[in-house]
Amino acid sequence: MPRIVKRPDDRRNEILDAAQALFFERGYERTTVNDVIAQIGISKGGFYHHFSAKEDLLEGITARLAQDAVARVRDILEDPSLDALTRLNGFLARSRQMKVEDAPKLRAAFDVVFRPENLLLYHRINAASIAVMRPVLTGIIAQGKTEGVFAVPDPEAAAEIILHLGASTHDAVARTIAAMGTAEEDAAIAALDRRFQFQGIAIDRILGLPDGSLTIVEPGFTRAVMTAR
Amino acid sequence: MPRIVKRPDDRRNEILDAAQALFFERGYERTTVNDVIAQIGISKGGFYHHFSAKEDLLEGITARLAQDAVARVRDILEDPSLDALTRLNGFLARSRQMKVEDAPKLRAAFDVVFRPENLLLYHRINAASIAVMRPVLTGIIAQGKTEGVFAVPDPEAAAEIILHLGASTHDAVARTIAAMGTAEEDAAIAALDRRFQFQGIAIDRILGLPDGSLTIVEPGFTRAVMTAR
């Protein structure tokens, strides 16, 4: 069989694709570098040309996911006509991919990332996303402060706190996933909905906005994601 | 040498002490069950009588740390004379052990838990602490709502969000530790101090309190911890 020579970037992405699929399926702990090599059928030398350890794969995957997240909000950031509140609402909706149409894809990802054995994966993805998003959100909050709409002493600290609030729903989402298919299903979905509503109010208040200024999830989103197959 | 027979609880705690020391020193990933067994010189059977896997050790350690945290706030919770704001300020101070006198011990723990390789350990300790503290903080916030001082639609969601804010300072603390001994030391300490001030304001606002009602750290605390040896 002729050896297929790929461009380095293609090969690197192919390795990351395989590692991401395995980490999400088996968990980070239970996947070895040899599993990744076997999955795509490359040589050890070919692998180690791009990555020196399993840890590098996790770095590469989280960096790619974070870049994707920035790409999803780029048009909102670059539109000069938007005031800070509109920009922030757009940023929150896009960066969380919280569109009802994405529900089935999102549900599959949730099922994996919220498994207890994937806690490190969850926090690494979250930390990489926060590192990329912090300057972006800081810029939006500074704009709102200049416009006299947001009342915050320190836009960068506010950005860091707001981005970390995302992780505060981890346990509530995990509880709701666990309740699906049981008698508590409806109550769990309603509880998670209320949780997201309050998250929006918490961010309003941190920025000195009236309650209800920001929307974290669209109406019907929680049910759509949780019941998607 | 005569075999020393210990009470089961003593033995269990001795195993957890050894595991905790090794996890904090080498990191969770790099410690094996055999390392723990070798450290205290017990038989494999003696170990597996108490724990079935390394994961159980982490569970046991985080449960112990969380129980210690509740014990530190018990008198504040049980004193019927305290209004909710006084109780909450006491709770925040105690549960974070943010007393200047504890600085050297706290600094040693920080150096370990904030190492990148201990990220899973950090988040597991944090999650166990949040699970134990959530009902406690929910009770204090519900009291404040009844007293008409806190303006929160959902005390339980507010408690969960406020407890998660603790983890939002993880990166800021890690950055400050990394800056110690460099030319940026003073600036990093001042930045972390401002970060803690804003954290207090964020909690004030989430609870509908005037800015400055709650104190997260005592004056001089950040410098005392960061320069302690």
Describe what you observe in this structure:
- 2 copies of one chain form a homodimer.
- Chain A is mainly α.
- Chain A has 2 domains: 8-50, Homeodomain-like (Arc Repressor Mutant, subunit A); 75-227, Tetracycline Repressor, domain 2 (Orthogonal Bundle), CATH 1.10.357.
- Chain A contains 11 helices and no strands.
- In chain A, α1 (8-26) packs across α2 and α10 crosses α11 (221-227).
- Chain A binds chain B through residues 119-120, 123-124, 127, 130-131, 153-154, 157-158, 160-161, 163-165, 167-168, 171-172, 194-195, 198-199, 201-202, 205-206, 208, and chain B through 119-120, 123-124, 127, 130-131, 153-154, 157-158, 160-161, 163-165, 167-168, 171-172, 194-195, 198-199, 201-202, 205-206, 208.
